[in-house]
């Protein structure tokens, strides 16, 4: 398929934010796409090459891309011109198209480029490892750009830089697939199920294109493809929980560790994080020890991996697990920072899905299939019937070092990929009026002074705006940092510095440096106030005012298991704002 068809569609999609229009463009594109490459098209639409859990990263550095454009333009002065264009509009893809437009008048294009060729080249670049990769990447990119029209070049660069932001939600892709291949948008539900159990939208697209709705209906869990996790709503009190859950439900400790989805068959074990990243390399101890506890041919389990004090068996805070996030010398971290694996669910067993089973039956099955030992445990659970019983169990859980309770309805299935009211979380109140912490995206930094010289002394943070797919500023945070965390944050953030502010960042406040919005950290605050400067939920509560956090403080938790899109949303901030006891009407503008 000619790449120009895809580039034209990208161009049209870039010009609108309206969901119905986007859906229509997608339907037209899918109808033109040969079935063998529809999965590739779906990945490219999302700015990816493969599903996230395969961990294939495209991102090429801006410098390298500028070099490749100059190489393709054929002159060294081109670098200056590109930088000028880039500064003007902040879009390197656009800058490339302008430079190459000038060149196009003087040279012949060599050959048409196809989607397959672009995809394969991007894939090769993503996979390049070892010596001199920068140079080899540049040669590959310049090769493509040589044959590309300006519009094609624009999108090739956006794909390479990870800046293709068409604002197409997964649901919109599924709407379009349902319309294009079954003639009815309502069939999206069936597609959603397939996506939730495979986390692979490309595969879902390929299945409906080649096998129709019938194929999608038969779609099953595949071992070693992660299942999208079920998430919980928050409640503030035991009363609210009883109101929502009824007379009798399960209460489990909410342990403060890392969620791990464990896939096991024979001796093979693969671990996925909450955001579906393959995290097997951080936990060689789980890989080694867990098969011994399993009495089934194959299973998918969910657990919280928690750091423990080996002498006392006590649970330690999540932060201890950070020591595991390293590429080298992991063995040392394994012995120094021991863990236990605390199972709370079973999603698949002996070739069959368990998602449709009630909570009760899943828990029973879990206890049958897994034998507890020193390392592998079931998460403590109790069936509770009234406020006192919840309170007692809550106390126990806090005393054991956990965050609070997860409350789960007994007669409900596992709802992969959705946050609903079958599971609720009741957390220990932080000592602040908001009553909960927020997970915010680090978008900018300010250089530290005095003891903080050489690190970012203050960070600019943002919430996620789901409608616009942007990150809106909500506060600056400069408290709560230890010397160690400042150092650690600098190491993580320094490589994320960008020359220009990422177009998805919405902030009037200027930072010393801008970061790609990727890192999520946990923050508590005393309250949420209206703000003329910050952009979170702008115009929602009051015209020309956004929401900001008052007295924000870093809790010390870097939420490595969350991606930026998992951060607290504007919707959540609005709910919290409205729920505050004393709403500060204007008087606390910050
Ligand atoms: P949070 O920010 O509170 O950790 P979250 O957005 O990651 O929440 P939620 O579904 O809201 O996800 O809260 C559940 C999280 O709590 C899970 O992702 C998991 O890591 C952790 N957890 C700890 N104990 C349990 C348990 N018993 N059952 C389910 N999840 C648990």
Number of helices: 19
Question: What is the CATH level 1 assignment of the largest domain?
Answer: Alpha Beta
The gross shape turns out to be globular
Architecture of the largest domain, according to CATH? 2-Layer Sandwich
**Derived structural class:** alpha+beta
Can you summarize the main beta sheet?
Answer: 8 strands, mixed
Radius of gyration: 25 Å
What does this structure look like?
The chain has 590 residues and is of the alpha+beta class. It has 3 domains: 114 residues, Orthogonal Bundle (DNA ligase i, domain 1); 201 residues, DNA ligase/mRNA capping enzyme (D-amino Acid Aminotransferase, Chain A, domain 1, 2-Layer Sandwich), CATH 3.30.470.30; 142 residues, OB fold (Dihydrolipoamide Acetyltransferase, E2P). Helices cover 38% and strands 21% of the residues. It has 19 helices and 21 strands. Strands 12, 13, 14, 15, 16, 17, 18 and 21 form an 8-stranded mixed beta sheet that branches. Strands 3, 4, 5, 6, 7 and 8 form a 6-stranded mixed beta sheet that branches. The longest helix has 17 residues. The termini are far apart. Adenosine-5'-triphosphate binds next to strand 1 and strand 2.
Q: What are the key terms here?
A:
alpha+beta, binds adenosine-5'-triphosphate, OB fold (Dihydrolipoamide Acetyltransferase, E2P), globular, DNA ligase i, domain 1, 590 residues, 8-stranded mixed sheet, D-amino Acid Aminotransferase, Chain A, domain 1
């Amino acid at each position: 398929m000619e790449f120009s068809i895809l580039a034209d569609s990208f161009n049209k999609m870039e010009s609108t934010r309206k969901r119905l229009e986007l859906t229509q463009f997608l339907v037209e594109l899918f109808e033109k796409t040969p079935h063998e490459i529809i999965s590739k098209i779906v990945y490219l639409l999302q700015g990816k090459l493969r599903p996230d859990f395969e961990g294939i990263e495209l991102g090429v550095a801006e410098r390298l891309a500028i070099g490749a454009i100059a190489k393709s333009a054929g002159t060294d002065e081109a670098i200056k011109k590109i930088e000028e264009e880039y500064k003007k509009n902040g879009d390197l893809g656009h800058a490339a198209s302008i430079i190459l437009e000038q060149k196009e008048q003087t040279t012949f294009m060599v050959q048409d480029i196809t989607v397959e060729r672009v995809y394969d080249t991007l894939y090769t670049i993503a996979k390049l490892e070892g010596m001199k990769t920068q140079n080899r990447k540049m040669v590959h990119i310049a090769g493509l750009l040589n044959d590309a029209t300006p519009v094609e070049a624009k999108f090739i660069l956006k794909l390479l830089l990870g800046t293709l932001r068409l604002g197409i939600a997964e649901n919109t892709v599924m709407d379009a697939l349902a319309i294009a291949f079954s003639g009815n948008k309502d069939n999206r539900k069936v597609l959603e199920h397939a996506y939730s159990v495979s986390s692979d939208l490309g595969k879902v697209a390929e299945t409906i294109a080649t096998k129709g709705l019938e194929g999608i209906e038969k779609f099953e869990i595949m071992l070693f493809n992660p299942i999208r996790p079920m998430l919980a709503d928050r409640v503030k009190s035991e009363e609210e929980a009883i109101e929502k859950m009824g007379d009798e439900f399960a209460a489990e400790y909410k342990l403060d560790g890392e969620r791990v989805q464990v896939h096991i068959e024979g001796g093979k074990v693969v671990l996925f994080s909450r955001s579906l990243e393959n995290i097997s390399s951080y936990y060689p101890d789980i890989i080694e020890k867990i098969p011994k506890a399993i009495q089934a041919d194959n299973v998918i389990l969910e657990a919280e991996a928690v750091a423990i004090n080996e002498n006392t068996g006590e649970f330690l805070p999540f932060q201890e697990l950070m020591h595991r996030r390293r590429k080298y010398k992991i063995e040392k971290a394994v012995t120094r920072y021991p863990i236990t694996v605390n199972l709370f669910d079973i999603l698949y067993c002996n070739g069959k899905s368990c998602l449709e089973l009630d909570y009760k039956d899943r828990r029973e099955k879990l206890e049958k299939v897994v034998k507890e030992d020193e390392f592998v445990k079931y998460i403590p659970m109790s069936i509770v019937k009234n406020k006192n019983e919840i309170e007692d169990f809550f106390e126990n859980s806090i005393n054991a070092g956990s965050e609070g309770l997860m409350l789960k309805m007994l007669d409900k299935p596992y709802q992969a990929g959705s946050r609903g009211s079958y599971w609720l979380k009741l957390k220990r109140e932080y000592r602040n009026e908001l009553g909960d912490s927020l997970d915010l995206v680090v978008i900018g930094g300010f250089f530290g002074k005095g003891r903080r010289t050489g690190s970012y002394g203050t960070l600019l943070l943002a919430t996620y705006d789901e409608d616009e797919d942007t990150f809106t500023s909500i506060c600056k945070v400069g408290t709560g940092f230890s010397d160690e965390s400042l150092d650690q944050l600098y190491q993580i953030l320094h490589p994320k510095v960008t020359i220009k502010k990422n177009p998805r960042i919405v902030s009037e406040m200027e930072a010393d440096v801008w970061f790609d919005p990727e890192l999520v950290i946990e923050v508590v605050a005393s309250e949420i106030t209206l703000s003329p400067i910050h952009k979170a939920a702008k115009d929602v509560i009051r015209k020309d005012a956004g929401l900001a956090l008052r007295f924000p403080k870093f809790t010390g938790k870097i939420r490595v298991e969350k991606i930026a899109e998992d951060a607290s949303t504007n919707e959540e901030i609005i709910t919290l704002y409205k729920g505050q006891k004393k709403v500060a009407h204007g008087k606390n503008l910050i």
